[in-house]
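Reopening this ticket.

The earlier resolution said the output was attached, but the attachment link was broken on my side. Pasting everything inline this time so it's all in one place.
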Amino acid sequence: MHQQQKYAFVIAGTASGCGKTTITLGVMRALMARQMRIQPFKIGPDYLDSGWHTAVTGVASRNLDAFMLPASILNGLFNQCLVDKDIAVIEGVMGLYDGYGTGLNYCSTAAMAKQLGCPVILLVDGKGVSTSIAATVMGFQHFDPSVNIAGVLVNRVNSDSHYQLLKQAIEQHCGIPVLGRMPVMPDIELPSRYLGLNPAREQSLSAQCLPEQGLQQQRWQVLAQQIEATVELDKLLDLVRLNEPPIGSVEGLIDPQLGHGLTLALAEDSAFNFYYPDNLALLEKSGVVIKRFSPLYDSQLPECQMVYIGGGYPELYAEQLAANGSMYQSLRQAHLKGIPIYAECGGLMYLGETLTDAQGVRHTMVGLIAGQSHMEKRLTRFGYCEAKANRDTTLIAKGETLRGHEFHYSDFNSDLDPVFDITKRRDGVIEKCWQGGYQNGNTLASYLHVHFAQRPGLLHRWLEIAREHL
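Inline output:
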């Protein structure tokens, strides 16, 4: 049987802030208008850009994280997601060659493009430049010739005459096709906050925004129409055929029977919504049933044997969270029963005793972890790290390690002994060491964001503890 043609490409930039997310969203929506089935991806650990992908396409965007996931597992997850899709549209991270450290091939967009065998469409800024833009493209072209830069898009170019000048310069001096331009579109700019873009889920729930059928829907339609008008999509598709899928497998990641009969209560609302879809999918593949609850609005947990509270912005909703005393009581009762609770970042702040917001107001929190969180004016921790357990925890046993990332403006102070010894390395050299994460009974909370697919069997300990409560 003839296999249906698949497509895949990476939209990469010259630097952060060059417009990758907006262009990516527009291209996705324009291809959807052509009845193509899109699978969005984001390189790196970012929750916010991938959240916008999901909002625009209606398909859960997946993170491609080379630090947390071995190549074989990552490739296998990529292939799995493309089974019922036509095209993978992958948004890069920072600039094309920016990764973890100074090496070209570690956690960069370029390295991921090579690993997956996907061509790169390079986005360059056309404002205030003419022939010099060719030097920029040529520099990216020659920095690593093994990266397949198949085409160029030019951002912030309002006139066709200016665009033709840039197109001619790039094609003449670099030999790479220029596929189109995007004008400045201030009405399409995405709202931002200190962690980056505002969460798309929060925007859809905000009283200031109309439902998806209204303002947001209109925004994506206008963006897609602009892409269709000024980008040669047919030419782009000709350049990004995926002839061979990358080699990889996800066999053996999870025991498909271990979660049978278990229900997980997942915190999900405007305060808590940072989750990797792969994590939730892996839990479901073990047989776990996921029931969502809102710490903001619900009075109690659903009946469950395990609880997962992810990251988000609890500091912005601290007063409302503190007013929901019945949810606090429900979580405390679950903890006292020994139901295993796992919390990441914002979840740690929520499970602490108090949270002091950016205005200096202290709010009472759930109190399962003895300690206090408080907001700072700058990033407290940022980046990839490795955590080794110095005692048994809900997720991993003593001596085992987790790879993850931290990104937070808050700090957490506790007299409890931390359960993780954490190391940050750059270019093979230890840069920082610290301790973090707290275990109280079967409740584990830390600032670490973790991808559960990083090794087979990672979830088994959590599931086995949960099974004791069936």
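Reporter confirms the inline version is readable. Confidence is low (pLDDT under 50) at residues 193-197, 202-212. The two ends are 46 Å apart (CA to CA).
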